[in-house]
Amino acid sequence: MAVKHELKNWLPITKKELEAHGWDELDVIIISGDAYVDHPAFGGAVIGRIIESAGYRVGIIPQPNWQDDLRDFKKFGKPRLFFGVTSGCMDSMVNHYTANKRKRSNDAYTPGGDAGFRPDYATITYTKILKELYPDVPVVVGGVEASLRRVTHYDYWSDQLMPSILIDSGADLLVYGMGEQPLREIMSLLGKGVPFHQLTNIPQTSYKAPRNEEVAKHKDWKDIVLNTHEKCLRDKKSYASNFKFVEQESNRLQADRIIQAAGDFNVVINPPYYTMTEQEIDQSFDLPYTRLPHPKYNKRGPIPAYEMIKFSINMHRGCFGGCSFCTISAHQGKFIASRSQESIMKEVDQVTSMPDFKGYISDLGGPSANMYGLKGKVQEICDRCVSPSCIHPVICSNLDTDHSQMTDIYRKVDKHPKVKKAFVGSGIRYDLLTKSYNKDANDSIDEYMEQLITRHVSGRLKVAPEHTADDTLKIMRKPSFKHFHEFKKKYDQINEKHQLNQQLIPYFISSHPGCKEEDMANLAAETKDMGFRLEQVQDFTPTPMTVATVIYYSGFHPYTMQKLFTPKSEKEKRNQHMFFFWHKNEYRQRIKDKLQSKGREDLIERLLFSKPEKKQFAQKEEGKSKVFGKKKSFSGKRSGKSRRK
To answer: Which residues take part in binding [4Fe-4S] cluster (predicted)?
Structure first.
């Protein structure tokens, strides 16, 4: 039976709703760049519900107007404890702009998908407004935007290095990563009467201290002092060398404290909390969400991001892949926090009881769907680990990759009387499912693949090999493409066995650091040979807190300090991307000219011609070489140069 919700089942977003709760003031006010969706996939709702569960009065001001008389920011007055600020589920600049810096015309986190309801650099804009209106009220910033901008970082959209967001915003405290654990501690200490300015020893938080004063020592934490923001501005190598420490300490279970000077302050970043236990993550997902957008949006149209996940189940957090272009581990952590099967099945009951549920769960997954329940065999080894990835350059011998728990939960959901089909839509790590790469894997990966392909693919399965060139894949921290060939073979065999015709959809990135034009041409040719006509290819977008972004800006790999090439100009990016359009007539001549200029006639043959055409092309090229062969000195030097290229 579906639950009928009253307006007071949501956290208040208006003065009238505040009164309906019987409150005359709030302890905490959350400002969010997203519309208010009371669902565990939306950070503002999670934070609000946690504060509520601790016994405090909390309200949300979603998508306030920052361009008028600021009445939205004033409607609740001053909170008793603090303001919480988040840009929303995405960095506001990623939300607003494409990889080519073109303004997007829509916003998935706004009713009707309408753009223009949040500012650029939303966390900074909102915080500055609050500090002007209520200078004596503390501001805590959190969410993806704050988390990934906690140290000196490269901002692609302004093409400059920016200091910690604490400096530019003027916020008093920053919560990084998934905020439940630090937030519970903040609320606990404030409840005991600890003054806000003394909240300096909470893990997974960052604060400013006067630069002319020594930062107080902590008996349990060692300190790592980074190159100052000013030094990073002068010297790109100094900026690059900082990142190794930032990434390693973000992913260590027993990490050091980081200190970086910027302007008049030292930015102090406390070590992260230990990975959430099953009980802790269950608590977060089991809070009394309505699982619906606030009723005020009913006449404004659906919220696309909500429509995408309303019938999905997030089973875990974190990702141990450590891909150099991805921010998931920087925000959610390297180690997997998995929910209990009881909590997951409880959510399945809730989803299947929704009035418009038609029997189909859109996703049983997480950042990478097949990491649920995976962890180290010996925890003490994980406790000491500083590697940013558990599966690159090889799969760690201490990682238990048994997929039985996933197969088990898939089958339980499959048997639910109200579920016709439960799909896995969030993508999987194919390399974990190939015995050529996952050498210590047991038979559970075969059982998992059989269950996945026969019961949980909605006609298309998404995987992300990202590239075909080994040199680029190494920079990406991804396995050799030969393992994708093995996975596809296995995938096709299972489909054939069960008389299924399900597509495999591979994702690729162009213009990644280290990638040359010939690499992209080879990628297009190799995938064409495999029968793919690619549709899921995107240009690399530099986002804060990734290895690839550090390389893009500085030109140096932060772990080796080796200088690396990165395509940056619009022309370079366009030249890389065009190889994916080999099947369009308007691109054929440009592709042919480009590859001829690089002496890669072999790729012309593979990319532009069918089998009969390839034979004709080869004969034509052979005839040319016989003619040019008469001019030995010219021909020899030219062809030799081409081969070296």
So the answer is: 319, 323, 326
Residues β-bridged to residue 266: 209, 261
Q: For helices 341-352 and 404-414, what crossing angle results, to 10°?
A: 30
Instruction: Spell out the residues 6+ positions from residue 405 whose beta carbon is closer than 8 angstroms to its own.
Output: 338, 372, 373
Q: How far apart are the first and last CA of the chain?
A: 68
What's the burial of 74, exposed, middle or buried (CB within 10 Å: 0-12/13-18/19+)? middle
**Residue positions forming the annotated binding site:** 319, 323, 326
203 to 141, 218, 224, 273, 322: CA distances (angstroms): 15, 12, 15, 6, 22
Which residues, 6 or more positions from 611, have their beta carbon under 8 angstroms from its beta carbon? none
Q: What are the distances in angstroms from CA 534 to CA 428, 506, 524, 586? A: 18, 8, 8, 17
Q: What contacts 383, CB < 8 A, 6 or more positions away?
A: 253, 254
* Structural domains of the chain, ranges and CATH numbers in brackets: 7-216+258-267 (3.40.50.280)
Token pair in block for residue 350: 């809730």
Q: How much is the pLDDT for 87?
A: 98
SS3 257: strand
**Residue 634: pLDDT band by 50, 70, 90 thresholds?**
very low
Phi then psi for residue 544, to 5 deg, are: -55, 150
What is the 8-class DSSP label of residue 571?
H
d(CA 266, CA 32): 27
551 CB-side CA count, 13 A:
25
DSSP letter, residue 277: P
Residue 253: pLDDT band by 50, 70, 90 thresholds?
A: very high
Instruction: Provide CB contacts within 8 A for 120, sequence distance 6+.
Output: 92, 93, 96, 157
Contacts of 517 (CB under 8 A, 6+ apart): 575, 576, 579, 594, 598
> What distance in Å separates the CA atoms of residue 144 and residue 153, rounded to the nearest whole number?
14
Per DSSP bridges, beta strands 257-262 and 265-269 are antiparallel
| CB 120 within 8 Å of CB 96 | yes
pLDDT tens sequence across 99-149: 999 999 999 999 999 999 999 999 999 999 999 999 999 999 999 999 999
Which amino acid would we find at residue 508? F
Does the pLDDT of residue 494 top 90, yes or no?
A: yes
d(CA 109, CA 33): 8
- The helices-and-strands tally (H runs, E runs) of the chain is 26, 24
User: Is-contact 202 196, C-beta < 8 A?
Assistant: no
Residues 506-539 as b or e (16 or more Cβ within 10 Å = b): bebbbbbbbbbbbbbbbbbbbbbeeebebeebeb
> Which tens digit of pLDDT belongs to each residue from 295-352?
999 999 999 999 999 999 999 999 999 999 999 999 999 999 999 999 999 999 999 9
Encode pLDDT of 617-627 as tens digits: 555 555 554 54
Tokens for 188, please give them: 């606990």
Q: For residues 106, 111, 117 and 122, what is the CA-based torsion angle, rounded to 10 degrees?
A: -90
- Mean pLDDT for all residues in the chain: 93
Dist CA 323 CA 563 (whole Å):
19
* Dihedral angle of Cα 110, 114, 119, 122, to the nearest 10 degrees: 20
> In the prediction, which pLDDT does 620 show?
56
Annotated binding site for [4Fe-4S] cluster: 319, 323, 326
Summarize the confidence of residues 150-154 as an average pLDDT. Answer: 98
Whether the predicted model's global pTM rises above the 0.90 cut: yes
**pLDDT for 230-246, tens place per residue?**
999 999 999 999 999 99
